[in-house]
Design a protein that fits this description.
The protein is of the alpha+beta class and about 260 residues long. It has helices at about 1-5, 40, 45-50, 85-100, 180-195, 220-230, 230-235, and strands spanning about 20-25, 30-35, 55, 65, 70-80, 105, 115, 120, 125-130, 130-140, 160-165, 240-245, 250-255.
């Protein structure tokens, strides 16, 4: 969020945008819901706690995903005018096929990356202030067996919801067959540099920076982190909803965490 807000967006009229950014980051065990989702519809909170997974809510939209150390998160920042939902995932598929042409990769109808018919990557997007970002997950060495029991199914017997929240699209997932998360990062760095250096003024070499969260931090980043960690943001900022429970004929309405 900090890098997105501080990426320059001003440019002369008809001048091509040349401030693209590509970030990679890895999180310890957590379940991440979208900005406009309802926590209690998406996850089994008790199971998250017992399995040692944190809960987080993104600043962007989209559905719920599970992170662990075997998953790489990527974020591609570009201009609002040049933003296309499937653009960057198509590049990732191209770069991975360059390493192994027989890898059965493609995009599904939603633009997610799939290996044969199983999802290996989910995406979310944000557009603001003349810029846009597309970020996603890439399962590589994730402990997928541990994911079971964390996310709720789309339908549950005896329970019905009335809400305007964004529903997750449940999908079968599988790991991308690479040796390590670092291999995926290196493949994408090489592909990004090759693709975007060609449009840089005077073919300027694109630098690569390695960031340590304990060193590269400031008050603005601390403010974002504090907000993301707060119960107010995680639990009480979602949309208003009503829940009908057939057993006992209960109706519960919740707004901003208040029943």
């Amino acid at each position: 969020n900090y890098i997105f807000n501080n990426t320059p967006s001003n440019q002369a009229k008809n001048e091509k945008f040349t401030n693209q950014r590509l970030l990679f980051y890895v999180n310890t065990n957590c379940v991440v819901i979208g900005k406009n989702q309802t926590v209690w519809r998406e996850v089994y909170s008790n199971n998250l706690a017992s399995k040692g997974y944190d809960l987080l809510r993104r600043f962007s939209g989209g559905g719920t995903v599970v992170h662990d150390l075997g998953n790489v998160n990527y974020s591609f920042i570009t201009s609002r005018d040049e933003f296309e939902r499937e653009f960057f995932n198509k590049l990732i598929v191209k770069w991975l096929r360059g390493i192994n042409s027989s890898m059965p990769l493609g995009l599904n109808s939603r633009g997610d990356i799939v290996l044969r018919d199983r999802k290996i990557s989910g995406s979310a997007f944000k557009i603001a202030k003349g810029k846009a970002y597309h970020h996603g997950t890439m399962l590589i060495n994730s402990d997928i067996d541990q994911f079971h029991g964390l996310l709720k199914p789309s339908e549950m017997d005896g329970i019905s919801w009335e809400c305007s929240s964004v529903d997750s699209v449940r999908s079968d997932v599988v790991n991308l067959p690479l040796q390590s998360t670092q291999q995926f990062i290196e493949i994408c760095i090489a592909g990004f540099k090759s693709h975007f250096e060609a449009i840089q003024p005077n073919h300027r070499v694109i630098p690569v920076y390695y960031c340590d969260e304990n060193v590269t931090i400031n008050d603005e980043i601390r403010k974002y982190a504090s907000n993301l960690q707060s119960d107010e943001w995680k639990y009480f900022s979602g949309p208003k909803f009503s829940l009908k429970i057939a057993n006992g004929n209960h109706l519960i309405t919740v707004e901003k965490g208040i029943i």
